[in-house]
């Protein structure tokens, strides 16, 4: 039976009921709805709506229901209850009879759903931070074990300057760390309880909403009842954090797909995260990474979708807002799956060190070094840049690397070049010169790895 039958003389059309009911997705809030209901029953004692004994009876029944839900979290899906709030109330009444009908006093599904949603989001944030941390830890440990592997760094997907594989790993550690801090920011802002806001104007029972909020683990109660039931910007924040992080994961995936390509050959992905072709027997495709890259789209879609849904909604609650859930559920599940998959892919890679180093030493990645060398000999950088450009053209014509040109050949481009140029052109020297904070020198890398390990609780 619907919660609101009294006003109606006709039953809902089956097609409308199908469109309107949300139990098939908001069943995920069962735990939050029950915990919120227990807290609400305690608040009702403080305003003399329930006796202590009645509250105890309700709490016992709600706890029993919670145990049933924990044992079988999807059992309610086939019920014809409109939503999870109706289902919990139905179950409660089935357990304790008429007493259960008192629970909704002073409460609305509008503040109830807003509370359930925040509690659910808070729990998700903690889990997501856990998955972000595991991926960061895997990246740092990979960086540490592969610290000596030199590879080309790219701009415009052209070999630019040599870096280390570890440096690449730590770049993603940084991005994921900002994702984590965005989640923490979002959590801080959403950590206020809407319960006791009623339908929109506030509950008519003069309870201590801050105490109620504390019982539920919130920092405090929200300040304005209209805002409390009408706002979903905390969901937008969560979805935009998910979207940004999925962009990071998508770029990580794209880098790895390229590293794994026959053309680059820097890494080999394990059989556990690749698949074959039905036609071409030689193929081993990087599907896990392609899916991470591909799934980025649906997460951005959930964010745009909810933005469009909320835009132009009049205050306070409107049924449009029921649309806040499915995209959120899908987006957070997708994000969580992709974080875990990225960790798995990374933990299983094999690095081809000699191939990485070979690629780093080709492609004139040390041209900047030669320019800096000329600068040290007194030539202004812009001029040095031009000279080295010509030297690269000359070296390409001879099919040689810069360091493979003889001194005589090099002197043809600038007479200041001497024998001391060769050590400067070595890969190791290219790395070592990047010794300012954030650079790729050995010392900086050691510091960066140690600092990251400490931040991530690995030290
Ligand atoms: N299922 C609804 C939602 O998800 C719950 C709130 C219903 N409130 C209402 N006034 N109809 O938004």
What would the keywords be for this entry?
two-stranded parallel sheet; Fumarate_lyase_fam; mainly alpha; two-stranded antiparallel sheet; EC 4.3.2.1; 61% helix; Argininosuccinate lyase; Ribonucleotide Reductase Protein R1, domain 1; Fumarase C, Chain A, domain 2; binds arginine; single chain; argininosuccinate lyase activity
Structure, explained:
With 459 residues, the protein is mainly alpha-helical. It folds into three domains: 14-105, Fumarase C, Chain B, domain 1, CATH 1.10.275.10; 110-147 and 162-190 and 222-351, Fumarase/aspartase (Central domain) (Fumarase C, Chain A, domain 2), CATH 1.20.200.10; 359-456, Ribonucleotide Reductase Protein R1, domain 1. It is built from 19 helices and six strands. It has helices at 14-20, 23-26, 30-46, 52-71, 84-96, 109-145, 165-190, 209-215, 225-230, 233-260, 287-310, 324-347, 353-361, 367-376, 381-398, 407-411, 421-424, 427-432, 442-455, and strands spanning 150-155, 158-164, 192-193, 220-221, 267-268, 350-351. A two-stranded antiparallel sheet has the order 1-2. It has a two-stranded parallel sheet with strand order 3-4. The protein is elongated, with a radius of gyration of 30 Å. Arginine binds at residues 22, 26, 83, 109-110, 113, 317, 319, 321-322. Its EC number is 4.3.2.1.
List the helices and strands and how they pair.
Layout: H1 14-20, H2 23-26, H3 30-46, H4 52-71, H5 84-96, H6 109-145, E1 150-155, E2 158-164, H7 165-190, E3 192-193, H8 209-215, E4 220-221, H9 225-230, H10 233-260, E5 267-268, H11 287-310, H12 324-347, E6 350-351, H13 353-361, H14 367-376, H15 381-398, H16 407-411, H17 421-424, H18 427-432, H19 442-455
Parallel strand pairs: 3-4
Antiparallel strand pairs: 1-2, 5-6
The structure holds arginine.
Residues 22, 26, 83, 109-110, 113, 317, 319, 321-322 line the site of arginine (ARG).
